[in-house]
Amino acid sequence: MKKIMIINGPNLNFLGIREKDVYGNDDYESICSYIKEKFSDKKVRIDILQSNSEGKLIDFLQSAYFRNFDGIVINPGAYTHYSYAILDAIKSISIPTVEVHLSNIHEREDFRKISVIASACIAQIYGKGKDGYVEAVELLIKDEN
Fold first, then answer.
1. What sign results for the dihedral spanned by CA atoms 68, 82, 13, 24?
2. Residues tagged in the binding site annotation for substrate
3. Angle at which helices 54-66 and 84-93 pack, to 10 degrees?
4. C-alpha distances in angstroms, 2 versus 37, 51, 73, 122?
5. Which domain holds residue 117?
6. DSSP-derived secondary structure for 92-115
7. How do residues 61-87 score in pLDDT, each as one tens digit?
8. Helix or strand (DSSP H, E) at 58
């Protein structure tokens, strides 16, 4: 059984409340349930975590290393664009990591088009809403399907 950790960054707990025209109407809990349901019949364990704190996101990444997770899906929120600490944490754990964004970051403000963590990830998925998470997990477990 593969173990996948999904890490969500700042303000994602406000999905369904914030900028519905950008992020949609689904709230955070319904998105988490949706992801878990998609893999309920597969041999995969999915842990979903969220924090508004950069340090806590790094703690999650490091715990994935110590708990022998097979893959990570991360939506670092705004930290995507400037957190070299998260970049370093991803590089240090050597676990395949996929960067996910609900919205199409390349069709938004210029600063959102820049990801400082992309170079440490095996893929970047954006603009697919909650299905982007599903695609990321499928990528990480592809030899288990």
1. negative
2. 75, 81, 88, 102-103, 112
3. 0
4. 16, 23, 13, 17
5. 2-141
6. HHT--EEEEESS-GGGS-GGGG--
7. 999 999 999 999 999 999 999 999 999
8. helix 54-66
Residue 100: predicted pLDDT: 97
d(CA 102, CA 75): 8
Active site residue ranges:
23, 101
Give the total number of structural domains in the chain: 1
Binding residues: 75, 81, 88, 102-103, 112
**Alpha carbon of 89 to those of 41, 51, 52, 84, 107: distances in Å?**
31, 16, 17, 8, 28
Instruction: Give the type of residue at 121.
Output: C
Tell me if 2 sits within 8 A of 43, measured CB to CB: yes
The two structure tokens encoding residue 4: 């996948």
Predicted TM-score (pTM) of the model is: 0.92
Q: What is the CATH number for 113? A: 3.40.50.9100
Give pLDDT tens digits for 39-50: 998 899 999 999
